[in-house]
From TrEMBL:
GO terms (BP aspect): fatty acid alpha-oxidation; oxalate catabolic process
Domain of life, per lineage: Bacteria
Domain Thiamine pyrophosphate enzyme TPP-binding intervals: 400-536
Domain Thiamine pyrophosphate enzyme N-terminal TPP-binding: 7-121
Keyword set, alphabetical order: Lyase, Magnesium, Metal-binding, Thiamine pyrophosphate
Membership in a protein family: Belongs to the TPP enzyme family.
UniProt keyword Zinc present: no
GO MF, any single term: magnesium ion binding
Source species: Mycobacterium rhizamassiliense
Protein known as: Acetolactate synthase large subunit or other thiamine pyrophosphate-requiring enzyme
Length: 566
């Protein structure tokens, strides 16, 4: 008699063969046994309360580890809840795989009305880097290999892998099954730039009067920290980190011009983009935000990114580590120097802005406002630079990004390319699970609400996550007057006691209304090493509509022009 195995075991064997150590998901028909078999095999299974958060956790795991994070969803609605995270991962270039069980194809395709029927493969396609379906048990090993390869090679992204329930339950000869599984060799091969592309880039840098390096989250993802540091420090070129690239070099680094951002991008005449897109976050490279004559050099793994917004004078297609190594090699023979007038101009602006910031942080109004709360958080995190920081919100995001310095690479996860809300708890869970280190999630009260139920997940797994809620009682702010019987659209509840949610699930809760209380509570929470919420009571009048994005808000632009006309 031959030994048999089944689809459930084969999926797990294939994931393990490819180094997957954790699955984030929610069980239900038809994948409950998949989670059980995975857990029994030694894979860690983290069960969530809503699939989008599980998907966001998988995406963050992918960003932090360069291995695809895996999210497991049920058919139909569970699958659909996973899609926003899959789409967000793809947009952010984070590698993840959403594995979803699905209903009976024979019934779905004739629209006969199966339980949770949906044409999931086609529904997923526009939101993923690629979407695949496995229809035979003997293709499971191949399907997982293909998903892993696609997720991490070239520009990383989200892959959808559809497995109908019937395939999971199919039996197969165990020896043949073992032969059908393989480990992907060199899943994300290095990509070296051509020598003439390197020459072209160096020529532009050497001729520049005001060069600038912009580090993006592609540079953080690349884990080429030593090559980045060497290039920045040997050239002496000032650098500007995008939010998730903060910490690649410490924010306290003398060449950082984060505190002189608008001057740096407004005046630079040669800009080296390292794993950063010239999208809305960089004003599309347009003048007057940028100097109209600026020349762009871009390092990107995806050559199709070049010229997406501005002419790229020197495209460098390749991975960040390989390209920077090639540039450094070239520059060793032909060193460049950065004019002192440029570094001096930037240093002066930086000093002035640092002084303004210090003044804002030192202020102690009652009730507390964003800067004062963030000043307290900053002081605690300066003592604990190895803490992972998750950050989302409007004002909570915009201001924390500037106030909270990062000293270590890949320690900051935030709303990213879409500026999306709802990633907070998923990202915090992944950071804690993947690294075992403490996490502080700095959340606007509105942003927190999108994934707030995952506090239960954080407590169930006793994760070292502290959620600091900057509670001004609203979307943007909490003081909009109500005009009818209902609260105004932007208003939430400034008196909400979010810390009680942590207590409800066995975590620790703190309620604070001054910077000193916040500092003490956050310090204690970090020492405890367990789950906690610090609810910070802020002035409901603190904050501005749309945060730093007021220009993107068509209504407020119209209102502004009306009031300007009036
Ligand atoms: P940010 O928002 O921080 O500016 P983006 O997400 O816009 O960063 O840009 C990241 C870029 O990095 C993407 O265009 C992506 O193709 C690129 N990228 C991702 N991984 C690598 C890598 N290993 N080497 C080079 N480029 C990479």
């Amino acid at each position: 008699m031959t030994t048999q195995t089944d689809g459930f075991h084969l999926v797990v064997d294939a994931l393990k063969a490819n180094g997957i150590e954790t699955i984030y998901g929610i069980v239900g028909i038809p994948i409950t046994d998949l989670a059980r078999v995975a857990q029994a095999s030694g894979i860690r299974y983290i069960g969530f309360r809503q699939e989008t958060s599980a998907g966001n956790a998988a995406a963050a795991a992918g960003f932090l580890t360069q291995r695809p994070g895996v999210c497991l969803t049920t058919s139909g609605p569970g699958f659909l809840n996973g899609l926003p995270a899959l789409a967000n991962a793809t947009t952010n270039c984070f590698p993840m795989i959403q594995i979803s069980g699905s209903s009976n194809r024979a019934l779905v395709d004739l629209q006969r009305g199966d339980y949770q029927d949906l044409d999931q493969l086609n529904a997923a396609r526009p939101f993923a880097k690629a979407a695949y379906r496995i229809t035979r048990v003997e293709d499971i090993g191949r399907g997982i290999a293909r998903a892993v390869r696609t997720a991490v090679s070239g520009r990383p992204g989200g892959v959808y892998l559809d497995i109908p329930g019937v395939v999971l339950g199919q039996a197969m000869d165990a020896a043949a099954a073992a032969d059908s599984v393989w480990r992907v060799v060199d899943p994300a091969p290095r990509q070296l730039p051509a020598p003439d592309a390197v020459d072209r880039a160096v020529e532009i840098l050497a001729a520049a009067q005001r060069p600038l390096i912009v580090l993006g989250k592609g540079a953080a993802y690349a884990q080429a920290d030593a090559a980045i540091r060497e290039f920045v420090e040997t050239t002496g070129i000032p650098f500007l980190p995008m939010s998730m690239a903060k910490g690649l070099l410490p924010d306290s680094h003398p060449q950082s011009v984060a505190a002189a951002r608008s001057l740096a991008i407004g005046r630079a005449d040669a800009v080296l983009l390292v794993g950063a897109r010239l999208n809305w976050l960089l004003g599309h490279g347009d003048s007057p935000q940028w100097d109209a004559g600026a020349k762009f050099i871009q390092i990107d793994i995806a050559a199709s990114e070049f010229d997406s917004n501005q002419p790229i004078a020197a495209p460098l297609a390749g991975d960040v580590g390989s390209v920077l190594a090639a540039l450094s090699d070239h520059l060793a023979a032909h060193p460049i120097s950065v004019p002192a007038a440029w570094t001096g101009e930037l240093a002066e602006r930086r000093e002035r802005n640092d002084a303004k910031m210090a003044e804002r942080l030192a202020d102690d109004p009652h009730p507390m406002r964003f800067y004062n709360a963030l000043g307290a958080i900053r002081a605690v995190l300066q003592q604990n630079p190895d803490v992972y920081v998750v950050n989302e919100g409007a004002n909570a995001l915009d201001l924390a990004r500037n106030v909270i310095d990062m000293e270590l690479p890949r320690h900051r996860l935030d709303s990213g390319t879409w500026g999306v809300m709802g990633v907070g708890m998923g990202y915090a869970i992944a950071a804690a699970v993947e690294t075992g280190r403490p996490v502080v999630a700095i959340e606007g009260d509105s942003a927190f609400g999108f994934s707030g139920m995952e506090i239960e997940t954080i407590c169930r797994y006793r994760l070292p996550v502290t959620v600091v809620i900057l509670n001004n009682g609203g979307v943007y702010r909490g003081d909009e007057e109500q005009t009818g019987g209902d609260p105004a659209p932007t208003v939430l509840n400034a008196r909400a006691r979010h810390e009680l949610i942590a207590e409800a699930f066995g975590g620790k809760g703190y309620h604070v209304s001054t910077p000193a209380e916040l500092r003490a509570a956050l310090t204690q929470a970090l020492v405890s090493g367990g789950p906690s919420i610090v609810d910070c009571e802020l002035d409901p009048a603190a904050g501005v509509e749309s945060g730093h994005l007021a220009a993107l808000n068509p209504t407020s632009a119209a209102r502004k022009s009306v009031s300007a006309d009036a």
